[in-house]
Amino acid sequence: MDALTELLTTDFRPLDRKAFDLYLAAVAQVKPDALALPTPCPDWTVHGLLRHQVSQDEGFAAAARGDGARLANWRNGDLGDDPAAAARTSAGLVTAAFAEVSLDQEMVLPEVREGGGFPASLAISFHFVDLVVHAWDLATAIGVPWEPSEELVAASLKVAAIVPTGPDDRGPGQAFDRLVPAPDGASPADRLLALLGRRPR
């Protein structure tokens, strides 16, 4: 079975919930004075990263409900006075929306591709891998451990393997930075980070 077929036939919803556990554990450790810290994502502070993930959760939830084409659904995340509570709320929103979707239903993701959509099985895998890697971005920014399970890393590597790597697909303004060479003997987790443009530390 090729990589894409495997992703299309895998239900990522249980893995997505486990990825939320990983991500929200890091969010819970963010102190108010850490919100202005830079993250490994050049365009985002900790506040910006948290807001981005809330916006993504809301966008993916809208896409699961058949309303993903409107960019406004992907841009209006609000952390309010309690970023951790906002993160938990958006996690609950998108998890509930995913639970209702059929895996062969089309989900329109305008921030990934203009025009057309993706089968929900594949779209959910994109949300999943974002959570796993944004958990690393956040943990690195605030100086706490990032310890995904072997299951999460193995599944994330399968998704990362299909992310385009061309010069027009990676870099500033794109979802992921350019590939980073992984050193010989790198762990699976470090290979995942390198595949998605992160520099393991």
Summarize the structure.
The protein has 201 residues and is mainly alpha-helical. The chain has helices at 3-8, 13-27, 46-64, 83-100, 120-142, 150-160, 188-195; strands at 106-107, 118-119. It is globular and about 40 Å long.
Task: Write up what this structure looks like.
With 201 residues, this protein is an all-alpha fold. The chain has one domain (3-148): Four Helix Bundle (Hemerythrin (Met), subunit A). The protein contains seven helices and two strands. It has a two-stranded antiparallel sheet. The longest helix is centred in the middle third of the chain and has 23 residues, at 120-142. The radius of gyration is 16 Å and the shape is globular. The N and C termini lie far apart (34 Å). The model has no long low-confidence stretch (mean pLDDT 90).
Question: Helix and strand layout, with pairings?
Answer:
Layout: H1 3-8, H2 13-27, H3 46-64, H4 83-100, E1 106-107, E2 118-119, H5 120-142, H6 150-160, H7 188-195
What is the strand tally?
A: 2
Instruction: Give the CATH level 1 class.
Output: Mainly Alpha
CATH topology: Four Helix Bundle (Hemerythrin (Met), subunit A)
Radius of gyration: 16 Å
User: Would you list the SSEs in sequence order as H and E?
Assistant: HHHHEEHHH
Structural class: mainly alpha
Main beta sheet: 2 strands, antiparallel
The CATH superfamily title: dinb family like domain
In the CATH hierarchy, what is the architecture at level 2? Up-down Bundle
Question: Strand portion, in percent?
Answer: under 5%
- Helix percent band: 40-55%
Domain tally = 1
DSSP helix count?
7
Mean pLDDT: 90
Taking strands numbered 1, 2, ... along the chain, how are they ordered across the largest sheet? 1-2
Distance between the termini: 34 Å
Low-confidence residue ranges: none
Give the overall silhouette.
Answer: globular
